Amino acid sequence: MPANDLNSSPSPPKVDAQIPPQVLVLDGGFGSQLEALGYAVDKSEVWSGGALIEEPELVRKCHQSFINAGADIIETNTYHLCIKKLRECRGYSVEQAESLVKVFSFKFIF
């Protein structure tokens, strides 16, 4: 089978080959940072994940503040944004909830 065949799948890279020898810094407490910027985490039924729906620019500011402070790794802030919670707390259909979870998992990464 040719190496560029679409049906072939390359071997995943080894995890240890991706980790630099130095210590990496993870971003800080996202909910605390959102509160410091004025978002009422305790008022949202999906906690800090609600900011992704209600105030995405505030989420970008939080990420940028962690980057400015020297963080090497930034998390997606999708904690508590699962299909079940979006349906129960926000009244979304399964399709809407699935779409949001996909968007929020990739939107702020790329």
TrEMBL record:
State the Gene Ontology terms under molecular function.
metal ion binding; S-adenosylmethionine-homocysteine S-methyltransferase activity
| Limits of the Hcy-binding domain | 12-110
Gene3D superfamilies for the chain? Homocysteine-binding-like domain (3.20.20.330)
Question: One of this protein's GO BP terms?
Answer: methionine biosynthetic process
Q: Which SUPFAM superfamilies does this UniProt record tie to the protein?
A: Homocysteine S-methyltransferase
**Which InterPro entries does the UniProt entry name for this protein?**
HCY_dom, HCY_dom_sf, Hcy_S-methyltransferase
Mind telling me which Pfam families this protein's record contains? Answer: S-methyl_trans
Q: In which pathway does it act?
A: Amino-acid biosynthesis; L-methionine biosynthesis via de novo pathway
PROSITE patterns recorded? HCY
Keywords per UniProt: Metal-binding, Methyltransferase, Transferase, Zinc
Q: What is this protein called?
A: Hcy-binding domain-containing protein
